[in-house]
Specification:
- The protein has a 24-stranded antiparallel β-sheet that branches. A five-stranded mixed β-sheet has the order 3-8-9-6-7.
- It has a single domain (4-267, 287-295, 297-355, 404-822), classed as Maltoporin, Chain A, CATH 2.40.170.20.
- Helices cover 5% and strands 54% of the residues.
- By secondary structure, it is mainly beta.
Length: 823
């Protein structure tokens, strides 16, 4: 791994203990760096700023969710929590991981969160938020070790990190400044899941303290797969040594988890494109059904270089992280402060699920696969070998799925980052200020192997079996349900291998100055980003005895194989500046006005490797390699007593170069513009509490170089209004309330014909303290069991003539109960 430069930067930590020995007589304001210890912690933020700041007096848009709110909301995963953050559109219907995240109209055109960055304690989890099959939220698991989550939208996100002009999402850990811990056990009441969470931290004396926390979870998932689809856990910890003038902290993280991947499922669409009706087919409820099945677990494929890969679809999203790092922060005297933090994480895993490449009547599919006179039999399950006499009536719907196994091996996604900062407070011209110089160095590996296959499966909401097709002569043309190696329905697009290293060097400078009621700040960042490596796709079809039984069966006569020796090079470097300038005027202690102008950028990674983005010599055009984001925002911040309101008007323009792999293969080279208004507010009045937010977004494709007919259209899945509210009644003994999230309608595709309906989804929660230490709680997700669709797959641009489509929806109603013990 090419970490020499990074490790050299990290050697600053070796000298910081010597600084600690100096024992400055003026204690460092560590509580400001770690505001969890302060009584007004909720008002202090540390993300997207050079130094800790009050939210009211900053010129950035930032929200925070503390550990108590996280426990109350019981999010399915890290991205699910973000549905309660104004400005963010988080499509977290795919399970605990692999979410799509858009910010203020900036597109999520090909999955993941291209313009956002997930961080843990101020360091990136991955350098890129939209890596195919390895989105950053996948490697973050909220548990009791999290103190709070801070989210900066736009603004300084352009300069205080690389590749996140849309948002920084920072999960901040507890550090054990107060002795105590919690143990909790959660059980699914109408689904199979058991989860244990625990954490404990405490001061140890003589300036030492520690915190450790984690979880373990096992179950079948909210969509019952009838096997253990959830299995694994996480443990995180840190130990801190404080000195008179600062602190040193060491931390570690171990994550090994498996979770199911929920993809689009069959759905009936009727009506008109402008006013469609979505409903479930007989035998398959889109709220609870799943194609995950104990009869569809094993897949054998040919990976790069011809190696045989055996995958277990029951592993779903398998993620493994083994990481550790350190943070050292010291006051040097005379207003000078130095901090160095680094983290190295070995990330790997696999992505294994089945995707509906096509849903159609079984009579159609069997004829296409086996020809005229073809017949159908069960390939496995309790009816294995039996002839299906009436395919048109099977399961009450007569449908089958050309199921693609999204087999992806995540070989190496190591991330290593070091951030060194030196800042100084100063006084000048009757005001006070701070100047910060920093150096950001990171390394990101992206090495993966795609190996997809095609199977025939019945449409059944639970325990669906695979099917075999026989031709008129009675010969099997499938292989235990396998239609083909590869995915002919998508043109065998997706047998791929790539091994690319990304290195980023980014010095930056930030200056802030406060005089009277006016607070000014500006920052500039120079990014030097380089990609080097190679990539390859299949180079034709070969005859391969994949299952090694000595017999070449029909699917084995045409196997797509990737030859790494015929790979193409990747070799491009881009240098560019980003900046952000803001002002905040404190009209009165409870009211402030702010404005900000920013120019950020996103250096494109794996999403441009295929589809012509990389030239034959490995170079990439400037406009393809880097997408700039220009943003302006202005707003009002109000805080008084138990009430607060943030109202922000925003505007953003960007370009995007990208590739869409599914459901339709397409190259994107678009320009976008959005503007709108973002609201966030809350009130505490006695036992009544309310937090709420809403975002109105007017977004358009202003120019499409590939498809000019899209000019002026609304980006797909971008609603005009998204909103959320959490009212609750809280006393010393009980807490009861609801979390309501919703969206207006949006278009399923950029062509702006077929609409996805809006929805309002309500989650309810209640808890009761049996004693001050023991609390019981109940959480109901999707209380009213609504069909909440986030994606339309198979035919996203019209109402199909036969009414058959696919869509991804949030799970239906599910109920869990938790018992916690605090000590």
């Amino acid at each position: 791994m090419k970490l020499a430069t990074l490790l050299l930067a990290g050697t600053a930590l070796a000298f910081l203990p010597q600084i600690a020995l100096a024992q400055s007589s003026v204690p460092a304001p560590e509580a400001a760096v770690e505001p969890e210890a302060k009584t007004d912690a909720a008002d202090i933020i540390v993300t997207g700023t050079a130094r800790p700041e009050r939210r009211l007096t900053t010129s950035i848009s930032i929200s925070a969710v503390d550990s108590q709110e996280i426990a109350k909301l019981a999010p399915m995963g890290s991205a699910d929590l973000l549905r309660n953050i104004p400005g963010l559109r988080a499509e977290s219907s795919g399970g605990e991981s692999n979410a799509n995240i858009a910010v203020r109209g900036l597109p999520a055109a090909s999955g993941g969160g291209k313009f956002v960055q997930f961080q843990e304690d101020g360091l990136p989890v991955l350098d890129f938020g939209d890596i195919a099959f390895a989105t950053a939220d996948t490697f973050v698991r909220p548990d009791y070790s999290v103190s709070r989550v801070e989210v900066v939208r736009g603004g300084s996100a352009s300069t205080f990190t690389s590749n996140a002009p849309g948002a920084i999402i920072n999960f901040i850990s507890k550090t054990g400044d107060v002795a105590g811990g919690t143990v909790g056990i959660t059980k699914g009441l109408d689904f199979n899941r058991t989860r244990i969470d625990a954490d404990y931290g405490a001061p140890l004396g003589e300036g030492w303290r520690f915190h450790v926390g984690g979880f373990y979870r096992v179950g079948n998932g909210v969509r019952n797969a009838d096997y253990t689809s959830e299995r694994g856990g996480q443990i995180k910890g840190n130990v801190t040594k404080t000195f008179a003038n600062g602190f040193i902290r060491l931390n570690f993280k171990y994550l090994d988890d498996r979770s199911p991947i929920y993809v689009p499922t069959p759905i009936r669409v009727t009506g008109t494109a402008a006013n469609p009706t979505y409903s479930s087919f007989p035998g398959f409820d889109v709220r609870s059904g799943t194609s995950l099945s104990p009869y569809f677990r094993s897949d054998i494929a040919i990976g790069s270089g011809g190696q045989r890969i055996v995958s277990d679809l029951g592993d779903g999203y398998r993620v493994k992280t083994r990481g550790g790092g350190a943070d050292a922060s010291f006051d040097l005297g005379g207003g000078w402060h130095i901090e160095d933090k680094f983290n190295v994480a070995s990330n790997s895993g696999s992505f294994a699920t089945s995707y509906p490449g096509r849903v159609a009547p079984l009579t159609t599919l069997m004829s296409e696969i086996g020809g005229v006179g073809a017949t159908l039999r069960y390939a496995n399950g309790p009816n294995a070998g039996q002839v299906i006499a009436n395919p048109a009536g099977l399961n009450g719907n007569g449908l089958g799925i050309n199921a693609l196994t999204f087999g992806v091996t995540l070989n190496d996604f190591t991330n290593a980052t070091n951030i060194l900062t030196l800042n100084r407070d100063f006084s000048a011209g009757g005001g006070t200020g701070n100047v910060t110089a920093g150096y950001f160095k990171s390394y990101q590996a992206i090495q993966m192997d795609w190996h997809w296959n095609s199977y025939l499966q019945e449409v059944k909401g639970r325990d669906a079996a695979l099917l075999n097709v026989y031709n008129a002569a009675g010969q099997s043309v499938t292989q235990n349900g396998l239609i083909a190696y590869g995915e002919p329905v998508f043109g065998n697009c997706c047998q791929r291998y790539y091994n690319v290293d990304y290195n980023i060097d980014a010095p930056y400078l930030a200056v802030s100055y406060k005089i009277g009621k006016l607070n000014l700040d500006g920052s500039v960042r120079f990014n030097s980003s380089r990609a080097s490596g190679h990539y390859a796709s299949n180079n034709g079809l070969s005859v391969v005895d994949v299952n090694q039984d000595g017999i070449i069966q029909t699917p084995e006569r045409s196997v797509p194989v990737v030859n790494p020796q015929a790979s193409s090079p990747v070799n491009y470097r881009k240098n560019y500046f980003t900046y952000s300038v803001g002002a905040n005027y404190e009209v009165m202690p409870s009211l402030a006005l702010f404005a900000r102008v920013s120019r950020g950028a996103r250096f494109n990674a794996d999403r441009i490797l295929f589809g012509g983005g990389v030239r034959a010599d490995g170079s990439v055009a400037d406009e393809v390699a880097v997408n700039f984001v220009n943003q302006q925002e202005a707003g009002i911040k109000f805080r008084r007593g138990g009430a607060y309101v943030n109202l922000t008007a925003f505007r953003a323009t960007t370009a995007e170069a990208n590739e869409i792999v599914i459901p339709q293969q397409a190259i994107i080279n678009n320009k976008y513009r959005s503007y709108g208004v973002e609201f966030e507010g809350g009130v505490d009045r006695g036992i009544f509490h309310l937090t709420a937010g809403a975002t109105y977004t007017h977004a358009r494709i202003t120019e499409s170089q590939v498809t000019p007919a899209l000019n002026g259209n609304i980006p797909y899945r971008q609603a005009a209004l998204i909103f959320q509210a959490t009212p609750s009644i809280r006393t010393d003994r009980f807490d009861i309330g609801a979390n309501v999230t919703g969206t207006t309608s949006s278009y399923a595709a950029d062509v702006n014909t077929l609409k996805m309906p809006g929805y309002v989804m309500t989650n309810a929660f209640a808890s009761y303290a049996i004693t001050p230490a023991i609390r019981l709680s109940v959480n109901v997700q999707n209380l009213f069991d609504v069909i909440a669709i986030t994606e339309v797959g198979q035919v996203p641009d019209s109402v199909p003539a036969d009414g058959i489509d696919t869509a991804r929806a949030f799970p239906g109603r599910n109920i869990s109960a938790t018992a916690t013990l605090r000590f």
